[in-house]
Automatic annotation (TrEMBL):
Protein name, as recorded: Uncharacterized protein
Pfam families tied to this protein: Peptidase_S28 (PF05577)
One GO BP annotation of this record: proteolysis
UniProt GO MF annotations: serine-type exopeptidase activity
């Protein structure tokens, strides 16, 4: 609707266009998602349904999930997990500290979304976000 009002052409959101874009290894201002896409497909083991087929087409080799788990392990010490309450990736994050080890901390930031803690502090930020940024690591 917005594009029609601006007399802009329709976006090509076809499967073929996506595969062509992801196959192009040239770095551009809009290509920063490609390394993340590769990692989610081949190393992390999660991929949104929309991207599952292109993932298998572009990276047909074996998945490295077992290797990633073996190399990094499932037990970790001295990590801080910042999880945001309204983050779409929250289901893949650690949301409580069940290790009983003091140096593993989980900070659940209420009322914030993905990457909010990475931005500069602003007066309008939620109190939980201000507090999380002050945690000494």
């Amino acid at each position: 609707m917005y594009r029609a009002r601006e007399n802009a052409p329709c976006l090509d959101v076809s499967h073929e266009k996506l595969v062509v874009e992801l196959s192009n290894a040239t770095a551009t201002a809009t290509s920063s998602y490609r390394p993340w896409f590769y990692q989610t497909c081949t190393e992390f083991g999660f991929c949104e349904n929309l991207f599952l087929i292109p993932s298998l087409e572009l990276y047909p080799g074996p998945r490295s999930l077992a290797l990633t788990g073996k190399y990094f392990g499932v037990c970790c010490l001295g990590h801080v997990f910042l999880t945001k309450e309204t983050d779409p990736w929250m289901e893949l994050s650690v949301v409580w500290n069940d290790t009983m080890v003091d140096n593993d901390r989980v900070i659940l930031i209420d009322g914030t979304a993905h990457c909010m803690d990475m931005n500069a502090d602003k007066s309008m930020d939620k109190p939980a976000l201000h507090q999380a940024r002050k945690v000494k690591i």
